[in-house]
Amino acid sequence: MRIAVVGATGLVGREMLTVLEERDVKVTELYPVASEASVGKTIRFNGNEVRVISMEQAISLTPDFALFSAGGSTSLEWAPKFAEVGTIVIDNSSAWRMESNIPLVVPEVNLETTESGSKIIANPNCSTIQLVVALAPLHKAFGLKRVVVSTYQSVSGTGKAAMLQLEEEENGHAASKPAYKYPIHRNCIPHCDVFLENGYTKEEMKLVNESRKILGIPNLKLTATAVRVPVNGGHSEAVNVTFEKPATVEDVRWILSKADGVILQDDPETNLYPMPLLAHRRDEVFVGRIRKDESEENAFNLWIVADNLRKGAATNAVQILEKLTQKAASK
After folding, report:
1. Strand 285-292 and strand 299-306: pairing?
2. What would the pLDDT profile of 158-185 be if each residue is shown by its tens digit?
3. Residues taking part in catalysis
4. 99/194 same-domain check
5. pTM to 2 decimals?
6. Which residues, including other chains, have CB under 8 Å from residue 23's CB and lie 6 or more apart?
């Protein structure tokens, strides 16, 4: 299996390489791809130094898969060129997610959409992935009526510059090249991505639109507020969900305890609940603080946490690759 990783020197690209190693994906040839400035440099993979190559060279080598994490404009330009030579592209940017003919995939939820034959598969937004992994089994059991989400998103979701800003501010220095308009240390910024005409940010609308597509509920009532918090890694979400059918806290816990990709951490008596600290470098979605919303019928509150660079990006992409190769091998 020949795999190209496009954006191999970035935060998510490096995490993709780590996940490929950890999950022992049988890579026969790895083609790390990055910008022209990085071509010729080397990255380490499975104990070997592998030279970074250009986009054109990678296409000429016709890899079986290309894992993209190099931004939307790069994906729009280059993903179709990989697809033209038969490569299956799994793209982590927002470029293709809402295209009707492109599958938007979370393996635990809607893997069957990859059977459309599309050579481009979209990897959802990080905060969307952890949300739908938890909500999909609950929807199957009780039917989703309305969802209200407030996110607490780590600076790693913005990138290296944001992580450096937090580090500099923690050390008592002004950020040399700030990623945010305000300090993030000892602060919360209710501004993830750009503002849109409706007053919501692009990140908030990704949660709405992507969740509807993945869950197959085009008219799902879902609203979101996305907040950046001074945490290095791991996104958290406070979720209020209203069901069509009656349920109890015990019902919700039982469903989630059996759900694929979910780890239930919900024992208030022992102070067990999900936190970014515990989700760090893990591939699962953690759910806890499950309780009845006493102000609304058939409504519940959940606290959902995942590592945004892992399940929220790199791991989900690699899991798609794994599922596709398993299906191909079984035919």
Report:
1. antiparallel
2. 999 999 999 999 999 999 999 999 999 9
3. 126, 235
4. no
5. 0.97
6. 318, 322
